[in-house]
Design a protein that fits this description.
globular, alpha/beta, two-stranded parallel sheet, 9 strands
């Protein structure tokens, strides 16, 4: 393995250590390296384990190319299937642009096409990528359609959430305007449309969703699809919480989030979610924009989801898992799959344009309230007295209390060597511990 690792590292000798999501050359280098790995390395799994154990020692492109190579290998071995990838768009003019047009441009429409084309080239599988305009004031739908038409990109489709509202489609029944959605409504419409259009598909249909930016290389889709060969109905990409998961900062740009603060917030969210939503106990990374579901398991629950904001993921996972267990007695409906994730913070809409303390804390605190409401809507049971006491405290937690909790945790718990996992000591905090930190 040492010799193989040396050869692989040699292939990256003239490549940058950090991956720049705005550089078209870096995307091409990843695909070229993935092809080399497939042709020259027989034990990709061992190489993945070795490099991911010490992620800082190796260039980002090697981590990513390994995952892409493993994905392509899986796709080549699977029987024929159909794959739809959905993403939402809001204020995406900058990131849809090329770097020449805008410093933060990721050219994500063309990049997504190239990634899927690379993944499925030489196979009989069918694929499509669907971008859904979430009421974007910059008219992202028209911008994407222009790129598709001008470059004659096949298998690329554009939808508008406004059309679903105007046509009074059942998936949009809770929306009066697109302002009632913040990503969730658009993604749910895209998933619903994909399921309906291919309802009579003669081959298995897998529906994925991701983010508009290039943080997730969707050429890794084969990893998530391959994980559903058995009874599991939903696979969830993992940036952390899995042995070979890798999360890299890439080339930092404006609006970059402090990795230690991020680790604290993610760890607190995971700790609170363990109690509020026990069915998701073993899924550390519920919010990654990279999930795959069997269409047959997804379609029946889509119209039941009522969360239209960033936390819609958790309700969707809950409902998919609950139905799978009720219908088929599936023992493990959800499965986490390690991925390589390159952070894209430039032009992000998550923090509303700023990384002040309030702006960083606000979306995480809002998720707590949304989790509590999900628990009631989805009728999550199994409450012992300890759990009820915990829930009572969480319900009374104010925004100022959460800010104190996060600030105190930031001071008390140092960043762990790897940001690939939530901070273990935070995830083990008792109710009394949390109360003291929030004072």
């Amino acid at each position: 393995m040492a010799k193989v690792l040396d050869l692989a590292v040699q292939q990256t000798a003239n490549l940058p250590k950090a991956f720049d999501l705005t550089e078209a050359a870096h995307q091409q280098q990843c695909r070229e390296l993935a092809s080399w790995l497939l042709s020259n390395v027989t034990d990709l799994d061992s190489l993945e384990q070795t490099t991911s154990a010490n992620p800082d020692e190796y260039p980002d492109v090697l981590h990513l190319a390994l995952k892409v190579a493993l994905s392509k290998r899986a796709v080549q071995q699977l029987p024929k299937f159909r794959c739809t990838v959905v993403f939402a768009m809001y204020n995406e003019k900058q990131r849809m642009s090329t770097k020449a047009e805008c410093p933060t441009g990721e050219d994500f429409v063309r990049v997504k096409f190239q990634q899927m084309n690379f993944l499925f080239q030489g196979t009989e599988h069918e694929w499509e990528v669907v971008g859904v305009d979430d009421g974007c004031p910059q008219n992202s739908a028209a911008l994407m359609q222009d790129i598709i038409d001008n470059d004659q990109l096949k298998n690329m489709k554009v939808l508008r959430l406004q059309d679903a509202i105007d046509q009074k489609l059942p998936i949009a029944k809770l929306l009066k305007t697109t302002d009632d959605s913040r990503k969730g409504g658009a993604i749910l419409y895209g998933l619903w449309d994909a399921c309906k259009r291919h309802q009579q598909s003669p081959v298995p249909h897998y529906v994925l969703y991701t983010d508009a930016d290039n943080s997730v290389d969707i050429a890794m889709s084969g990893l998530l699809i391959n994980a559903l060969k058995g009874d599991s109905v939903c696979s969830i990409g993992a940036r952390y919480g899995q042995p070979t998961a890798v999360r890299r900062n890439g080339v930092s740009t404006d609006n970059a989030e402090d990795p230690h603060a991020r680790q604290i917030h993610v760890s607190l969210r995971h700790r609170l979610r363990q109690c509020i939503l026990p069915p998701l106990f073993n899924i550390a990374d519920t919010q990654i924009g990279f999930k795959c579901m069997k269409a047959a398991a997804l379609e029946p629950v889509l119209e039941d989801v009522t969360t239209m904001g960033f936390s819609f993921d958790m309700e969707l996972l809950l409902r998919v898992a609950q139905r799978a267990k009720e219908a088929n007695e599936v023992t493990q409906p959800l499965v986490a799959v390690p991925t390589c994730y390159i952070d894209s913070t430039a032009a992000s809409t998550f923090y509303e344009g700023t990384t002040s303390e309030d702006a960083v804390c606000k979306p995480y605190f809002k998720m707590i309230d949304e989790m509590l409401r999900m628990r009631d809507r989805c009728r999550v049971g199994g409450s012992g007295q300890a759990e009820l006491d915990f829930l009572e405290w969480v319900k009374d937690l104010s925004f100022e209390g959460y800010k104190k909790l996060a600030a105190a945790s930031l001071q008390q718990f140092p960043v762990e060597p790897s940001v690939n996992t939530p901070i273990s000591s935070v995830c083990q905090l008792s109710l009394d511990d949390l109360k003291k930190l929030a004072q």
